[in-house]
Amino acid sequence: MYGNPFGRGLGEVLLSRRWFSQGYGWLQSTRWSGRKVADFIERYRIPMDEYEPGPFATFNDFFVRKFREGARTWTTEPRVMAAFAEARYLAWTSIEDDQTFPVKGHHLSASALLGNEELARDFTGGPLLLARLCPVDYHRFHYPDDGRVLESYRAHGAYHSVNPVALKAKSDVLATNERHITILDTKNFGKLAYVEVGAMCVGKIVLTHTEGEFRRGDEKGYFLFGGSTVVVLGQRGVWQPDTDLLEQTARKRETLVRLGEPVAVRC
């Protein structure tokens, strides 16, 4: 769709609209949608022994499935940040304007992602982790450390795809799509800006925890049907992403990381 003028035009006029994604998401919550769960599991070889058992009455019931107790282990080392989503990660120690992968640097800046210049000052020049979730993935997201919520707000926008092909064709997607932004004060990593980005056919960003204190590994929320992205920004000099993530990002490669595994370390 994003590879030709007609497809891009269709995306702008129809497919990236809020009502289209919410309508498609509604279809995934109907009893009819439950018929495709078994075929989806078989086609994409979903390891269902890692998840709580069904039955799944609708596709969205299956889509927001939870891991079984003990299926994932959270790193407990205080100076090591745990993966907040099971996803494909990219990482930077700092975002530069001349950066072009996966999008132009100024579209990944704190001010662009947060849509608030005052809040962005704390994160300008700091590290950034980008976690892209595919439709086959676990779609709940979690807190990477102990802490408390300082601020939480919604930035309304479109619902373009976050697929790498789409990001290359339309580089402002992460800064203009529907987003929920939460400013966190964490025990070991200072302030974090936690940004959930909606995408095409994501019916809804659902938050299960919105205020007060939280513990490392606590659930923060989940995405209803569709691929989506979580971005976490930090303060300059407080922490840095793991070396292997930085090296793979420099090679323009995403790294699949399991929930709770190390993704960054305190400086």
Q: What is the element string, with H for helices and E for strands?
A: HHHHEEHHEEEHHEEEEEEEHEE
Percent in helix: 10-25%
Rg on CA atoms, Å: 18 Å
Major sheet characteristics: 8 strands, antiparallel
Q: Tell me the number of helical segments per DSSP (H or I, 4 or more residues long).
A: 9
Mean pLDDT: 85
> Structural class given helices, strands, pairing?
alpha+beta
Strand element count: 14
Principal-axes shape call = globular
Instruction: Tell me the span between the first and last alpha carbons.
Output: 42 Å
Q: What fraction strand?
A: 25-35%
Domain unit count: 1
Spatial sequence of strands, sheet with the most strands:
9-5-6-7-11-3-2-13
Low-confidence spans: pLDDT under 50, at least 5 residues? 13-17
Description:
- With 267 residues, the protein is of the alpha+beta class.
- Helices cover 22% and strands 27% of the residues.
- It has one domain.
- The chain is built from nine helices and 14 strands.
- Strands 9-5-6-7-11-3-2-13 form an eight-stranded antiparallel β-sheet. Strands 1-14-12 form a three-stranded antiparallel β-sheet.
